[in-house]
Protein: Alpha-1,4 glucan phosphorylase
Organism: Mobilicoccus pelagius NBRC 104925
Amino acid sequence: VTGPQFEPTHERALTPAVGPARDVDGFVRQFLRELNYTQGVPLSRSTLNDQYLALARTVRHYLMQGWIRTGKRRRDAGDKVIGYLSAEYLLGRQLDNALLAAGLEDIAREAMKECGLDVDLLRSQEIEPGLGNGGLGRLAACFVDSLATMDVSCIGYGIRYEYGIFKQTFEDGRQVEVPDSWLALGSPWEFPQPDRAVQIDFGGHTERYTGDDGRERTRWVPAWDVQAVPYHLLVPGYRNGVVNTLRLWSAKATNAFDLQLFNQGDYAEAVRAQTFAENITKVLYPEDSTPQGRELRLQQQYFFVAASIKDFIRHTLPADFDLHRLPERIAFQLNDTHPVIAIPELMRILVDEHDFEWDEAWDVTKQCFDYTCHTLLPEALEVWPVDLLGRLLPRHLEIVYRLNEDFLARVREQFDGDEVRARRMSMVQENPVRAIRMAHLATVAATKVNGVAELHSQLLRDKVLPDFSEMWPDKFTNVTNGVTPRRFVRIANPGMSELVTEAIGEGWLTDLERLRELEPFADDAAFRERFRAVKAGNKERLRQLLHHRDGIDLPEGHLLDVMVKRLHEYKRQSLKLLHVVSLYQRLLSDEVDPESTTPRTVVFGAKAAPGYFMAKETIALINAVAATIDADERVAGRLAIAFPANYNVTLAETLIPAADLSEQISLAGKEASGTGNMKFALNGALTIGTDDGANVEIRQLVGDDNFFLFGMTEPRVAELQAKGYVPGDVYASSPRLKSAIDFLASGEATGGDPSRAAAVVDDLLSSDRFMALADFDAYVEAQEKVEATYADTEAWTRSAILNVARSGFFSSDRSMRDYLDRIWNVSARS
Ligand code: CR6
């Protein structure tokens, strides 16, 4: 039995308990109470971790009234809820954001000082919850932040992985993965709710039977089940008292162990089932945009969406709610294909458990889902073999088959029995194995389908799902991604934030287009001077961090050139590396006077999926080249490469505000959007980039003069691909490229060891799937333009300020407004 244990009209039930007083004294008291009574230590004997946990819980107390009030207000109003279904949330540290949202930064600093503690040191203790791989997971975290800030009712549903994205270390320059035990030292931000666990079924078979009403019905007879235990996290809006909920599910065995086996002495066998069930939420799959189609991953996907739907119907909706009206109360947003199994799950609930007619159920289901596609890579569009799906979720497979039959009948009817088209559009693929195309299922069911940047949405319509956009042109829309300015400007770049507020006043942090008002300041020499001082301060902060974190000593006074993102061939870290090698050669040659070149430090940050061979080779090669250049006295002070390990949200927050140059050099037509690109522009870095993803919109907004564009456009790429791309020809025809590759292949850039470069060089010369070589000359030329511009300090600063002033569009608040208008038909309160 769940639910309130006493009459909700009872006086005490109506108002949340009063929180601690909002002053230094109140904060200190609560902090010491937490330390003494929850951590169980006196201040004098407490460790840093004790202090961090007590501080986190103290801040949490200040958010709880807001959370309780927000929940009550939303229930009373019967608000439509946005149910964001995402297998990943790359949250980053919670304490900084909670302090900012609650407006407690100054009070906390003072209070800690009174206790003889340093709030910054405590903040740095937090291990970030890394429950995502990269852009997609971070986007989900930005979106829930914006919805809370805009006071929109949203529940973010996801998975509480016990181990998030692995911690990256380097051994001899090669990536070695270490488990990320983010929960090990305590998790002060989450609230477990074991009494609201729901049962999730798997396996078994289906049966037909005749219901009491004489109707033919189907029931699923599952073979095993697990418990899904919700943990809720707070999602505070920025200084508006609103606190939304993130509901993450953790798997727990239904029966802890088999007592009979245990008593017979077979201890291992007795707990086997438990281990098996609890594996479901043990670890995040570390592939970004390249799913491996493993059974456990399908279990994860079904587990969290089934738990979320059940929980919503059972606990969020009023008890007697008529499910025919479900679309009035929920819009489930499918964050890529990972949660798409939710569609047949809702059908199953309505038809098998609530006696809906099939068509009636489909009508409701269609209205409850919208689908966001985040990719253009064919290998990232998930398919599930029917063997596997039938074994794990037999009823769902039947439902998908029936949906597909109905759908294909419509296609044949509308397109004159066009069988070829029907086969192309089918939810079921026949080769190489019979499998369900989750993107097709999602597209057929969803009310709206969106891409994540203008170019991406266009290519989605024209190339990925052309038949569907022909059939339903109005179904397709675009919402360009965005990032939260609270975390990625205000927290990450306090110096610039202060300067901006001084210039244009408060208010821009929740109305980012107001950054436009900075434009005139680009022509103000005194302001430029101060802007540069902020950048210099940010670089110094980065130098300190890398010194302590990685033992890396960045040189001073360099152009800081940064490429941070997942390691993926389409993103072309290898192109950046070839440029570095070419710069190194230029410094060693007699062609130029080294003193006349722009001193440059290149910083890489990237994790590779553990099973992605070429990505890992690229990491090892970058590290080998970095070591060689670092050891070469001849280029000291002119060129450096740094590759700090374990790039994550926390590192990004220090790295991005320090950057001068942002590397966004993917092969055109491959990067759906990118969101790092937006963070850099908002922090006053200039972009060197291809005409890809959201780069296109960044360039349109900041202006051609403030963006270094290079490389083939998407149509040109397609043309070259069709013609047959031969990397060897490019190599032979570009002397500078040839020289860089030969140098690399010879081992001269890798401490004399040519084997280090072999895999990457061979791949570039023989296949070069992402055409790095074809864009090399254009890239080097664009980099020369970068150097020329950087030499003119005032012109560079002017461009940097204009990048900030014109990037307000890339706030995730704007993205959310677009979802509300174009997709959810809900309006924001603020
Ligand atoms: N890998 C895209 O590749 C986009 C994010 C968020 C990605 C990236 O360009 O910015 O999503 N796609 O929309 C997937 O994860 C499938 C990503 O992060």
